Amino acid sequence: MERKNWLWQLMGFATASLLGVLLHFLYYITGGSVFAAPFSGVNESTWEHMKLLFWPMLLFALVQGRFYTDRHDFWYVKLRGILLGLALIPVIFYTYNGAVGKSPDWLNIAIFFVSAALSYIYELHLLNKKPPAVCHKRAAITALILLAAAFVIFTFLPPPLGIFTDPITGTAGVDN
Predict the structure, then answer these.
(1) How far apart, in whole angstroms, are the C-alpha atoms of residue 49 and residue 40?
(2) Which residues pair with 165 in a beta bridge?
(3) 44 phi and psi, to 5 degrees?
(4) Contact yes or no for 66/116 (Cβ under 8 A)
(5) Helix, strand, coil share (%) of the chain residues, nearest 5
(6) Which residues, in sequence order, are bridge partners of residue 172?
(7) Which one is predicted more confidently, 79 or 173?
(8) Does an H or E element contain 6, and which?
(9) What's the pLDDT tens digit per position in 75-85?
(10) 90 pLDDT exceeds 90?
(11) According to the model, what pLDDT value does residue 175 have?
(12) How much is the pTM?
């Protein structure tokens, strides 16, 4: 079972990495398509980079979940992994920038990959453990749906917070 979990998590990391990079450019490739905007980076804000990790991880979880029907804690594990990745991106980015100043582009890219890798390693750790006796599958799925809704809504109606602001242009969201 541990080998199966390891292979799935490695495929998840590869998928999230590849799709995350593609989603970074999708909005611009499509000429600013309103349909691509909720799933792709519409600017260089930290929030938009978090979105680049969320959607690939969720998509991969939807596929992986078809093969993990025996794990009643599967969606709980996925929620925890996704939340870890979403937390790591701003924590690492703002910690580094607060300590050193502006980070180079290569470091920002590395932050994405490190966050994805640590998320999948954490999920692997959880999947290799015995599932907890009680797990709230519906609560985990509801939380993921709410996160998805937040990424869609805040793409078009971002709150006036720094995490939503593009550090290059000073704008937030689509056409703001």
Answers:
(1) 9
(2) 172
(3) -100, 20
(4) no
(5) 70, 0, 30
(6) 165
(7) 79
(8) helix 2-29
(9) 999 999 999 99
(10) yes
(11) 67
(12) 0.92
CB-based contacts of 7: which residues, under 8 Å, 6+ apart? none
* Angle at CA of residue 24, ends 55 and 92, nearest 5°: 80
Helix axes 46-64, 2-29, angle to 10 degrees: 130
Are 88 and 54 in contact by the 8 Å Cβ rule? The answer is: no
Q: Given the structure tokens 């990745």, which residue do they identify?
A: 85
Spell out the domain ranges in the chain: 2-164
Task: Tell me which residue has tokens 């910690």.
Answer: 95
Q: Mean pLDDT over residues 114-140, rounded?
A: 92
User: How many Cα atoms sit within 13 Å of 19 on the Cβ side?
Assistant: 20
Residue pointed to by tokens 């809704």: 149
Write down the H helix ranges in 101-176. Answer: 105-127, 137-156
Q: Please tell me the distance from the alpha carbon of residue 5 to that of residue 68, in angstroms, as a whole number.
A: 10
Q: What are phi and psi of 165, to 5 degrees?
A: -90, 130
